């Protein structure tokens, strides 16, 4: 492949990435205005009423909340379990979180700290910087934290993009660690919410 062709392909890929990011942000704005990101009951009712389109909408919501943290995963992940059942809920949580986490890493590496700071806000940004620059958590601790439920995984993926961590190492850590933490988190909180609904609803 000659240099001009390579540059043209890279330009097209960059444009597609930007379009995807814009669409994601628009989805977040729409969801926020509709109350889906602040009211778990509205989100659950909305998804379950969509029928066959529910899984697609849920995937888009999960990608959006992974990249732009307007709603914690502690709300959206259990909703997936309740709406689609334990196994499908787990898969429909895992796929968009994988994708969103990779996008986070790419945004940090491609656009740098000012962009990430604008996305996550000052408080989360400085917490992340404290982990990676002052405490220097390192590659191995990053991998370990991918296994830990309730760790700030979205911020960790942004922060990893600022380091010299290779794409291969990041992807490997994400692939092996995230299913473990997500399973514990999703099934644990999902069953807890089911118990709450059955006993107090």
TrEMBL record:
Q: Would the keyword Transmembrane helix be found if you checked this record's keyword annotation?
A: yes
Query: What's its membrane topology?
Result: Multi-pass membrane protein
Keywords recorded for this protein, A-Z = Cell membrane, Membrane, Transmembrane, Transmembrane helix
Primary location recorded for the protein, binned into one broad class: membrane
Q: Where in the cell is it found?
A: Cell membrane
- Supply the name of the protein: TVP38/TMEM64 family membrane protein
InterPro entries recorded: TMEM64, VTT_dom
Query: Which PANTHER family does the record associate with it?
Result: GOLGI APPARATUS MEMBRANE PROTEIN TVP38-RELATED (PTHR12677), TVP38_TMEM64 FAMILY MEMBRANE PROTEIN (PTHR12677:SF49)
**Which residue ranges traverse the bilayer?**
12-32, 44-67, 87-107, 141-162, 182-200
Which residue ranges does the record assign to the VTT domain?
72-187
Q: Which family does it belong to?
A: Belongs to the TVP38/TMEM64 family.
């Amino acid at each position: 492949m000659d240099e001009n062709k390579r540059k043209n392909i890279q330009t097209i890929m960059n444009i597609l990435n930007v379009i995807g990011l814009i669409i994601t942000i628009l989805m977040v704005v729409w969801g926020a205005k509709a109350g889906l990101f602040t009211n778990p009951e509205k989100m659950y009712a909305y998804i379950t009423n969509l029928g066959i389109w529910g899984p697609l909408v849920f995937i888009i919501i999960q990608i959006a909340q992974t990249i732009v943290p307007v709603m914690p995963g502690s709300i959206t992940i259990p909703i997936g379990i309740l709406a689609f059942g334990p196994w499908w809920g787990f898969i429909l949580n895992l796929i968009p979180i994988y994708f969103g986490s990779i996008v986070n890493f790419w945004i940090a590496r491609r656009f740098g700290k000012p962009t990430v700071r604008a996305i996550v806000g000052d408080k989360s940004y400085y917490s992340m910087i404290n982990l990676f620059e002052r405490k220097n958590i390192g590659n191995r601790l990053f991998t370990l934290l991918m296994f830990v439920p309730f760790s700030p995984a979205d911020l960790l993926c942004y922060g990893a993009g600022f380091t010299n961590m290779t794409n291969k190492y990041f992807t490997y850590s994400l692939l092996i660690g995230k299913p473990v933490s997500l399973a514990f988190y999703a099934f644990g909180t999902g069953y807890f919410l089911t118990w709450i609904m059955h006993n107090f609803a």
